[in-house]
Input
Amino acid sequence: MSLFVLRRLGLMLLMALVLTFAVFCLTNLQPNLEKLARSEGSVRMTDESIANWIVQNGHGGSMVTRYGQWLGVVPGWTYTDDKGVTRGRCISAEVPAEAAPRYCGILQGNWGFSTFAKSPVTTVLARSLGHTGWLMLAVMLVMVPTSLLLGVLSGMREGSRTDRVLSAFAIATTATPEYVSGVIFVALFGSATAGLSPLLNQWGWIEGKTLFLGTATSAMDDITFWNFSLPVMTIALYGIGYIARMTRASMTEVMTQQYIRTARLKGVSFRNVVMKHALRNALIAPFTVIMLQFPWLLNGVVIVETLFNYKGFGWTLVQAAGNNDINMLLACSVVAVFVVLVTQLISDIGYVFLNPRIRLS
Amino acid sequence: MSDWDPSKPILEIENLSISFFTRLREIPAVMDFSCSVMAGEAMGLVGESGCGKSTVALAVMRDLGKNGRITGGRILFKGRDLTTMDDEELRQIRGSEIAMIYQEPMASLNPAMKIGAQLAEVPMIHQGMSKADAWALARQIVADVRLPDPDRIINAYPHQLSGGQQQRIVIAMALMSKPALLILDEPTTALDVTVEAGIVDLVKALGEKYGTSMLFISHNLGLIMDVCDRLCVMYSGEAVETGNVHQVFDEMRHPYTQALFRSIPLPGADKNARPLISIPGNFPLPHERPKGCNFGPRCDYFTEGRCNAAEVEMREIPGGDRHASRCVKWEEIDWTAPPAARIAKEKTPVGKVVLKMEDLKKYYSVSGGAFGGGAKKVVKANETLSFEAREGETLAIVGESGCGKSTFAKVLMGLETATSGSILLFDENVQSTPIQQRNTDTVSSVQMVFQNPFDTLNPSMSVGRQIIRALEIFRFGASDQERQDRMLELLDLVKLPRAFADRMPRQLSGGQKQRVGIARAFAGGAKVVVADEPVSALDVSVQAAVTDLLMDIQRENRTTLLFISHDLSIVRYLSDRVMVMYLGHVVEMGTTDQVFSPPYHPYTEALLSAVPIADTHVTRKRIVLEGDIPSAMNPPPGCPFQTRCRWKSQVPGGLCEREMPPVQMLEGGHQIKCHLSSEVLATMEPVIKIAAE
Ligand SMILES: Nc1ncnc2c1ncn2[C@@H]1O[C@H](COP(=O)(O)OP(=O)(O)OP(=O)(O)O)[C@@H](O)[C@H]1O
Ligand code: SF4
Ligand code: SF4
Ligand SMILES: [Mg+2]
Output
């Protein structure tokens, strides 16, 4: 088992390197650098001075060395200009050239400076990840129990009316992308002039103008039911349909197994047939799916955070991409790669754990 | 339940009719079925596949699924009608008063629950027993079903046990709350014969110990005779004959029962002198049953206007022990008359050596460990096999699952290459030539008939096309016309109507498909045909026809037939020589008479004693082997059979545990791979004795 985990970790590391290198190459393409030079230097630079700027700011040299510098395995660049002032990757206002370390990549904890936020990448990233963390947590808390419940309920009696209704719901939600459902939700619950809110307000059921708030900006300081519901619902809904359908498929399959019949003919009540005999076997497949949902949730996060103006990871990613903020983009992709790989690992280990046939043989 | 009188039947099924409702039509699976089981009695239910045995059993459990419904009749259990009970009443009876065991043990155990938990659940539900007590009881019952090391087993998961052990657990589960009635639906079909013998013994002993009544479903008449007191023969959804086992076996009063007995190979049957008689025609589908007697179209005694006039009633046979038959003519039929159709055939002379194997070995290397780690292991599938087969001869290869029979066939066919040794086919060495490199002649001269006729035919190609394809591959004939003619001849050869050339495989029955498989194998004029369990997937009445067909073709073409089987009855019936394999070793080889009479190899002896024989005149010595077949990946040191051998103590000095026994040559070329001295071998008694009639 530990060998297995070790091997998976090794493989993960390799994949992380390959993937980040790919992102590094894409973000450091020549046109991007030229754009950066214009925005950092001056917009009216000549082509020649752009080339100089690129070289003088450590963006020259081969892609591999630059990647090595960023990673922290190749010494950081330095450049001494005509005035004798030395600049470099590891040199900043606080750290003078004499005291600067040779290596300063992400391995040393130096994630660089965000050109857009005008502050270190780590600070921005930590803050936005914190926001997204809360969002994800809420989504998971809503999504996992709901979807498993829906899946199990519809799968335990295949073809029943409950099953048909729930399945239709599940299909409808997966067929609706977040940018559609998000807009619908805002219109339905978050608008003071349309949807349900004016009605409810008229009847005196709600005090405020709207049932839920159509933007989640205020949730960054203080999460409330009012300001957080819509973004959470929007992300969770898509996942609910998907996981519920997986659970249902798995549950219906399990319910037709011989051992379920054995249990039934032992006199086990239907409730316990489902709870004690079917559930664990039926959850093996959805567990993997839930874990694999995490990376996919990032996707939803990008859309929803932008839509609801919630400054989390997704929002930061969009801003970084829009503003050619190379360091930020790189950091975001490292996080994304990390999330994908770690959830993969957890899903594999969890699968083994739930399934004794694999665990012990 | 208190008002139930123990002298009354514990289970009484009265005129039960069951239908399945599909989109197309209603399928009347069981019609007017009656039978009763007394306390402590074992009732057998026999019949061919699809005759409705399982349906009856599931109806008793009231578990017919969504589309099944009881359309008439009553099922009385201890005087209470099960057909009108509601879910809660049923739940209380299931598992506590009636328990059921079915065919596939692995599938009936929950893979994610410990054995102990699955067992303990029963008394916890029904008797409200505490968890600790229930586990203690589980442990005790596990010991009762004679499983070694019960403490380890109750903490194990199902996949950690072998098939035989799992089936014992399923039995233990059924016995947890000492039910009054136990329903067993083909409980041993998936198991090897020696394992089956152990389970059957166990079921009988436990039945006696707890006084449980049993409803035992099987298609194997021999097994029914071993286990049951009474039986009920079913045909196409109806009971056709019922009575005491001995009475029905010796004085059957229904033509179907008679035909069934004539189509199974009992000791004394012989392919030349007394060939089997197959039942003509096919089983009617539930919605295509004829008017009047269902067996009419296949019955030798059929009389127009009487048998097909009206539904035939079940009638009591006077003087019998609750013996009844569903035949209008039973009083008129001369039940002692020998069958008319039996035509003795000539014995095929045996010719020159066609196939010769010398010191053949086949090892597989497999990797161990769940995550790909672990050392490579070697599975010795075949160890130093040597034998020869002659023209026109039938050589049977016998052994239980995993003994290497099929590997051997694959090596011979060139689907695998041997690790070492030589295979000489007509004096040409084909040992290491895989099938792609063999020339067409060699390929067409060695052909195979497979176990499962359902998988080997291309479902989207007509029967005639498939045979012509085979002819093309073997480059037979110069023109399409020639091949077309040959195809029709082949259909004649396998006794299929020529019109079948245009049929699709799905329009054929199992036996007919197997005939097409045989026709294809003989398309290239095969000299050696390897038949890997060719009839084991077929019903008994069809088995006889297919075996006879193979024999007829052999007579005509002087083919060498290698017949791979685990069924010793059929092997005795049709083979000239027998090779017994165990864990990749040939442990005994000789003519059929030599192998089936003493001296035996200890394994052959056990195997012979394990095979149930449906003949009341035969007495068998019971030798029940302990334990399971060791894994080929991890064979025991010394003699491969030493872990289960009951003769081991007769060999001095623990030789069996240390050294691989040599092959002893007894008289007449009879070979036995065993350390036992010739004196000890000479003291062996025959396992099967046939009482004089
Ligand atoms: N769920 C079902 N829906 C429709 N038809 C069914 C269903 N179950 C069984 N049948 C039909 O009922 C008939 C009896 O089936 P059953 O399973 O009782 O046969 P069996 O005697 O147990 O056969 P086997 O020896 O193969 O187990 C068959 O013709 C079968 O096709
Ligand atoms: S009723 Fe007629 S057809 Fe049916 S079994 Fe009897 S003799 Fe044969
Ligand atoms: S060699 Fe020994 S263990 Fe093997 S079969 Fe003979 S007596 Fe039994
Ligand atoms: Mg059945």
